[in-house]
Amino acid sequence: MANSSSISISNIQLQHITHISDYFFSQGQENTLQKYTNPLDKNPFYRTVPGFYLTPADIVLRNNIIDLSGTFQSPTPSLAYHRAGPRKQILFNPSTVKAAIVTCGGLCPGLNTVIRELVVGLWEMYGVREIFGIKAGYRGFYSYDPVLLNRKMVDDWHKRGGTVLETSRGGFDLNKIVNAIQDHGFNQVYIIGGDGTMRGAVKIFEEVKQRKLYISVVGIPKTVDNDVGIIDRSFGFQTAVEMAQQAINAAHVEAESAVNGIGLVKLMGRSTGHIALHATLSNRDVDCCLIPEIDFYLEGKGGLLEFLESRLKETGHAVLVVAEGAGQDMIPRTESQKTEKDESGNPVFLDVGGWLKSELKNWWNRDHPNELFTIKHIDPTYMIRAVPANATDNSYCTLLAHSAIHGVMAGYTGFVCGPINGNYAYIPVDEIAKAKNKVDTKDHKWSWVRSVSNQPDFIRS
Ligand SMILES: Nc1ncnc2c1ncn2[C@@H]1O[C@H](COP(=O)(O)OP(=O)(O)O)[C@@H](O)[C@H]1O
Ligand SMILES: O=P(O)(O)OC[C@H]1O[C@](O)(COP(=O)(O)O)[C@@H](O)[C@@H]1O
Ligand SMILES: [Mg+2]
Question: Which GO terms describe its biological process (predicted)?
Fold first, then answer.
C-alpha cells in the first residue's frame, strides 16, 4: 500500500481560467485596469466575514475518490478548478456594465429561473441596471433588437416553463454575433445552452480575445439530457426525470390491465440514456430500459423478445422504457434519412418507440397468433422538458446564475460554472465543450438497473 499518512498537493493540476487582463494588454504593456471593491461589502444582506470572499487559492478537486492502494488509478487524479463565488476586488464598475443574456438550443426546465436570477443577481448584488435579453438564441444577436430587462419584470419567471427570451437552433454566425456584441456595447455576455451552444461560446470567446475586447463571456450549461461532462448534473434534468414518472406509471397501469400487456415509454435522450436510466431506477415498475449506450437486439438467445416472452409468462405484463437515441442502427431508413441533420447539425432520429411497437406486434402475431396481446406506446416527448423547474432545480439554477455573475464581475471570461462533487467551480469553456457525459455501463448504477429490472445484458454469447 502507498504511504499515505499525509496528502501531497504537489501533483494537482489547476485548470486556468482566463482573466480579461490576460489578453487585454500587449506583451510588455503595463496592466492599468482599475479594480473596484465588491459592493457586497456594503450590502446589508451579506456579512462579509473572513472567508466570505474567495481567492484564486480556493479550489475544487475533480476527483474526490482516491484509491490509496494504488490499484485502480483514476484517469484524472489531480485536476482542480477555481471555486466559484464572490471576489473582494472586481474588475467591472457596475455602473458601466451592459449585460446580455441569451438562451440557445432545446428547452430545459429552469431556463427562466437562470435568466431571472441573472437579472436579480446583477441588479441586487452588484447594482447593475443595463441588462438585456437577446431573443431567439444566437441568431438573435444580429436579427432582433435586445430587450431591456429589469428586476420587477422577471419577478415570477421562475414559475414558467420554457424561456421567455425564446430560443432556436442554428443561426450561428461568428462575425455577425461578435460585431453585434460590439455594436450594442455589451461587456458581459451570459450564454445559456447545451453542448452545441458551448462549442459556439468557445468561438465567441476566442474571437473576443483575438479582437482584445473588454468583454467577459460566460457559459451556463443547460441540457435536459444531462449530456454535459465534468459537472455533477445539468439543471432541469431532475425535473424531467420526475415528469417521466407519470408516463411510466400510466404505461404500467395500461400493461397490468391487459392480457399480455406491454407498456412502452419513449423518453428524450439524444445520445445519452440518463433520463431513461434515472426514470427507471426511481420507478421500479420497469422491466427493461434501453439506452443508446447499449446495443440491444430482438431475436435469439439473450434478445429482447425472449426476455419479454418470459416476463409475460411470469407476470402477464411488461413495461419498457426506451431512450429516443437507442436502437437507431436497427431502424430501416432511407438514404436521405441517414444523413438528416437539424439546423444545429444534430442527427435527426427516427422514432424508436413506433418502430419497436410494430416489431413487437409482428413478433406476437407470428409466434402467438391466437393469444391476446396489447401494446400501448406512450411518448411524452416535450412534456418532460416544457415545464417549470422543480424546487431542487430552481435552487440549483439560482446558485449557477449567481456563481456566473461573481466570476464575470471579477473579470474572468471564457468559463462556465457548475457543481463538481457538490461544490460550484469555474471550468474553462473549451473543456466543457469537449466533455461528453455518457451513461457508464460499467459502473454500479447500470448494474443496479439490471438488478431491478432483470433485463438481459444484450451480450451475444
Ligand atoms: N460547433 C459549433 N460551433 C458553433 N456553434 C454551434 C456549434 N454547434 C452548435 N452551435 C450552435 O449552438 C446553438 C445550440 O446548439 P444545439 O446543438 O441546437 O443545442 P444545445 O446547445 O442545447 O446542444 C445553435 O445556435 C447552433 O448553431
Ligand atoms: O427541440 P427539438 O429540436 O425537437 O430537439 C429535441 C432534442 O432536444 C433535446 O430535448 C435536448 O437537446 P439539446 O440539449 O441539444 O437542446 C433532446 O433530448 C431531443 O433529442
Ligand atoms: Mg445538445
Answer: fructose 6-phosphate metabolic process
Pairing of strands 13-14, 18-19: unpaired
- Ranges of residues in the chain whose predicted pLDDT is under 70: 1-10, 71-77
Per-residue DSSP letter, 65: -
Q: Which residue has the cell 441533420?
A: 341
- Residue 448 inside a domain? The answer is no
- The CATH code of the domain that includes 301 is 3.40.50.460
Q: Considering every ligand atom, which ligand is closest to the CA of 323?
A: 2
Which atom of ligand 2 lies at the shortest distance from residue 382's CA?
A: 10
- One domain, residues 328 and 397: no
Exposure of 107 in the CB half-sphere (CA atoms within 13 A): 20
How far is residue 351's CA from residue 290's CA, in Å, rounded to a whole number? 14
Same domain, 287 and 140: no
209 plus 264 within the same structural domain: no
Q: Does one domain contain both 207 and 63?
A: yes
175 CB-near residues (< 8 Å, 6+ apart): 207
Looking from the CA of residue 222, the nearest atom of ligand 2 is 14
Q: How far apart are CA 209 and CA 52, in angstroms?
A: 31
What pLDDT does 31 receive? 87
Ligand nearest to the CA of 430: 1
Within 6 A (CB) of ligand 2 lie: 105-106, 169, 194, 196, 223-225, 268-270, 324, 342, 385
Instruction: Please state, in angstroms and rounded to a whole number, the distance separating the CA atoms of residues 139 and 413.
Output: 22
pLDDT tens-digit map of 257-274:
999 999 999 999 988 999
For residues 362 and 402, membership in a common domain is answered with: no
- Which residues does residue 189 pair with via DSSP β-bridges, in sequence order? 100, 217
Helix residue spans in 62-143 (DSSP H): 111-126, 140-143
Statement to judge: residues 194 and 293 lie in one domain: no
| Total domain count, the chain | 2
How much is the pLDDT for 323?
A: 97
C-beta of residue 118 within 8 angstroms of C-beta of residue 405 = yes
CA–CA separation, 314 and 300 (whole Å): 19
| 271 located within any domain | yes
Mark whether 84 and 208 lie in a shared domain: yes
Complex ipTM over 0.85 = yes
Domain that holds residue 87: 12-234+389-434
94-145: per-residue pLDDT in tens? 999 999 999 999 999 999 999 999 999 999 999 999 999 999 999 999 999 9
**Same-domain status, 299 and 332:** yes
Distance, CA 241 to ligand 3 centroid (Å)?
Answer: 18
DSSP state, 96?
A: G
Amino acid (1-letter code) at residue 174: L
